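Notes to self after the call with IL:
- keep both proteins in one doc
- input above output, always
- annotate only the second one for now

Protein 1:
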Amino acid sequence: MIQERLSKLEGYLSELRDLESTTFQEYQINKFIRKFVERTLHTAIEACLDIGRRIIALANLRQPEDNKAVFTILAEADILPSVYLNNFQAMAGFRNVLVHEYAGLDDVAVFGVLKKHLGDFDIFIKAITAYLAQSI
């Protein structure tokens, strides 16, 4: 399951990177691009959370009380680099915005994640891959 989700996550990132050259004006005008970015960011974050929850269960770590805690627990266990914990927790918060505030999403914020934070997913993938390699 973890490898499957990692593969999906890499696919989502590849698709989002295809849109990195999109201008904010294009993003605002084209509802298909906006909806694609919103949904793909949502599913990418869900993949990270699924992976995190599975690793927490397999490693017998304490159970998270919310999505932000998934990343906190992984950082406490030195599975994720703690220097990026704020970024990962922001990712969990952004997921909640995408899911619960979908009717009033801020285009500037979503576009900002597309332009500035895809690297956070790369850090997550690299850390999880390293953890899996050493735990085999």
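Protein 2 (the one to annotate):
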Amino acid sequence: MPQAPAPREGRDVIGRGTRLRGRIAFLGSLVIHGDFAGEIHAPEGTVRIGPDGQVAAEIEAAELQVEGKARGSLFAHDSIELRNGADVQGNMRCARLRIDKEAVFDGFCECYRPSSQEPENGMSQADLDGFFTAARIASLRP
């Protein structure tokens, strides 16, 4: 299996009408206005899915902001924001969560208490000790 490219720093944009598949690793920020499927690895970066963005991916970032459609597993070391117009289906894990009134979320969410050391390797039973779980299920808009 091919290795992901080495992370690079900067601001990248996937424009409207662009369709990408694969793995992305970066430092800095990524704004998605197009269509992306695959994996995004940016543990120190910011991922923003714009209003026209459509993403089906496993995402790891420091911060994640969603205004468009997202399907998959979303993990933010710091915060996830589901802004007005967001339509998210999947599982989310973060230290801080904000869901605007006009956002839609269908799935499971784990909000953990920030500590001096991040949990390692995703969710395990040991990670759940001392954490609290919050979930909000919303129906899709008519």
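Annotation: Residues 125-128 form the longest helix (4 residues). Residues 124-142 have pLDDT under 50 and may be disordered.
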